[in-house]
Design goal:
Blueprint: E1 5-9, H1 14-30, E2 33-40, H2 43-48, H3 56-81, E3 86-92, H4 95-107, E4 111-115, H5 121-127, H6 130-137, E5 141-145
Parallel strand pairs: 1-2, 1-4, 2-3, 4-5
Length: about 160
């Protein structure tokens, strides 16, 4: 099945970067477009910083950090695999809902490629992993990247 638009959610984890590498290689083979997505989980503000006021500066810094990270991935794809047919996106909210439904509805991706585990171990223990949720509920096919001995982490 030819994939025309691939979504790769990333969170800075090694697993996410392996999935990004795999997505770029598939996109090259399939002549597909790649959307890289970082979701800033705004729900964490409620639990972790209940007594602290979240300032615009904090949100701005988180956004700047995410954009810097996404730009570095885009540059890596260009420099290492000569691939440029990709866009990066930052969204705010629940990663589960944004990856499974919202982003797919907006961008019409036919495949999601994501790592088996991400950075948020607490959420995995309490609520189940984002990957598990996306695998069960996404509006597109899902490829879960567990390990790949041929790939080295991007960093």
């Amino acid at each position: 099945m030819k994939q025309e638009k691939i979504l790769v959610p990333v969170d800075g984890s090694e697993s996410a970067e392996r999935s990004f590498d795999k997505a770029i290689k598939i996109a090259i083979t399939e002549n597909a477009h790649v959307d890289i997505l970082n979701v800033i989980d705004t729900r964490q503000f409620l639990g972790e910083m209940q007594d602290t006021l979240i300032t615009g500066d904090t949100v701005y810094q988180m956004t700047q950090d995410a954009e810097k990270y996404l730009k570095s991935l885009k540059e890596w794809a260009h420099d290492n695999l000569d691939f440029d047919d990709l866009d990066y996106h930052i969204r705010y909210g629940s990663p589960k809902a944004i990856i499974s439904y919202d982003f797919i509805k907006d961008h019409h991706n036919s495949l999601i490629i994501m790592g088996a585990t991400g950075l948020n171990a607490v959420e995995r223990m309490l609520m189940g992993s984002v990957t598990e949720y996306v695998n069960q509920h996404a509006l597109a096919d899902v490829l879960i990247v567990r390990t790949d001995i041929d790939n080295q982490p991007i960093k």
